[in-house]
Write a structure and sequence with these properties.
The chain contains ten helices and three strands, in the order ααααααβααββαα. It has about 260 residues and is mainly alpha-helical. It has a three-stranded antiparallel beta sheet.
């Protein structure tokens, strides 16, 4: 940051020098002479322009400063004064044109800065809206994933309980009978336990599929080598069901990550 302080008097002197050399009284030209902060120079430059517009004359500048620069500047100032004296109307027009050119330059710079700031604000707002929409979508998808996972777990638990119960019920009836039973007799005994005919048939199918029982030509018998290990088979079925549930949850997670 610049340590030079641009005072009102320094800005006046800079304006005098610029006019003497035929340059416009723009912010960049004055800053090149005075240094200092842009906001301070702009404020003093506006004051000088207002004074010039009100008085219709060019500030004489600081006397001491002009004395120090007399050797270098006096010939130029004298030549400029003679030219202005010969053409007073032209001098006034040039002064006003210089002020106008400086104002137009400053206005253009401010306009560009305002447009840039507005563009940045709009971009930030668009990004915020996009992030909010993405977050809302992610939250909704995560909620769906949790709901699906809960549903899968509930179905898996229900399936494990029902399948294991059906198989145990069939094994128990065959063990009580102590001998093979015809399918219809097995269904009748299962119905006595509270199962419907369709549920009884499904229970027999579960027991045969898990190899807890044999079904040869409609005669259902307890498989001896499986009778003692029926609990182990139930546990194995539970593990298989849990693996299916995990695979389902993994598929849901992959779909969320891929944005699908």
């Amino acid at each position: 940051m610049s340590t030079i302080i641009a005072t009102l008097e320094r800005v006046r002197e800079a304006c005098t020098l610029l006019q003497a050399s035929g340059q416009t009284l723009s912010l960049s030209n004055v800053l090149g002479i005075t240094g200092g902060s842009k906001s301070t120079v702009l404020k003093h430059l506006k004051t000088v322009r207002d004074e010039m517009a009100a008085e219709g004359s060019v500030p004489s500048g600081d006397i001491v400063f002009l004395q120090k620069l007399a050797d270098q500047m006096l010939p130029k100032l004298w030549s400029a004064a003679q030219s202005h004296a010969r053409h007073p109307l032209e001098r006034r027009i040039q002064e006003l044109m210089a002020v106008k050119a400086g104002l137009e330059e400053d206005n253009e710079a401010l306009q560009k800065a305002e447009e840039a700031a507005s563009a940045r604000a709009e971009e930030a707002e668009r990004r915020l809206e996009a992030l909010e929409a993405e977050l809302k979508s992610r939250n909704a998808m995560e909620e769906q994933m949790r709901a699906l996972a809960t549903m899968v777990e509930a179905l898996s638990t229900k399936r494990r309980g029902r399948t294991g119960s059906d198989r145990q019920l069939v094994a128990g009836i065959l063990a009580e009978a102590g001998a093979p039973l015809a399918r219809e007799e097995l269904y009748r005994r299962l119905e006595e336990k509270g199962l419907s005919n369709a549920a009884a048939q499904k229970a027999r199918w579960h027991a045969v599929k898990a190899e807890d029982a044999n079904d040869d030509d409609g005669l259902v018998s307890l498989k001896v080598d499986r009778a003692a290990g029926s609990e182990g088979e139930v546990a194995a079925e539970r593990r298989r069901t849990e693996e299916v549930a995990k695979d389902t949850q993994a598929a849901i997670t992959d779909r969320l990550r891929s944005g699908g």
